[in-house]
Specification:
By secondary structure, this protein is mostly helical. The chain has one domain (2-135). It has helices at residues 2-9, 16-27, 31-55, 58-65, 69-82, 95-105, 110-135. Helix 1 packs parallel to helix 3 and helix 3 (31-55) packs antiparallel against helix 7. The protein is elongated, with a radius of gyration of 15 Å. The mean pLDDT is 90.
């Protein structure tokens, strides 16, 4: 679960929610441990993106990751107004990667980014896990 959520937390298109649902429905894994391992892996994936933003310029990141410079600049400007708490939404598809990278570009407080990423991803995985269990 941690590896799947790490990949999903980075710029790699991957669905950790599908993996979590399948694990919980087919294996009987402990929901709390699955949520925790998913959250930790996903936060580490977001931090990977954060450090890409920290070491690269918008131009380099745009080229390497094939994200339009305009989108990166727009997201960076939006994130700059909000602060590190916006990391709570880094679980969102497509936008989450841009949020994490933008926080790195802006050199936002790393501890704030980790905290808010954890909060958002933990709440999301609680919803995913208990939805999968309810559908079982």
């Amino acid at each position: 679960m941690a590896l799947a959520s790490f990949l999903a937390g980075t710029f790699v298109p991957f669905s950790s929610e599908a993996v979590m649902g399948a694990l919980l429905v087919t294996t009987g894994m402990d929901p709390f441990l699955t949520i925790i391992s998913g959250t930790i892996g996903n936060v580490l994936g977001s931090m990977f993106n954060y450090y890409i933003g920290r070491i690269g310029s918008i131009e380099q990141i745009s080229k390497w990751m094939r994200i339009k410079e305009r989108r990166l600049r727009k997201t960076r400007d939006y994130v700059e107004k909000k602060g590190s708490w916006i990391a709570a939404f880094s679980f969102l598809p497509i936008f989450g990667t841009a949020i994490s990278i933008s926080l790195g570009i802006l050199r936002a407080n790393v501890w704030g980014v980790i905290f808010w990423s954890f909060v958002g991803k933990f709440l999301r995985y609680i919803i995913v896990a208990y939805s999968a269990i309810a559908l079982k």
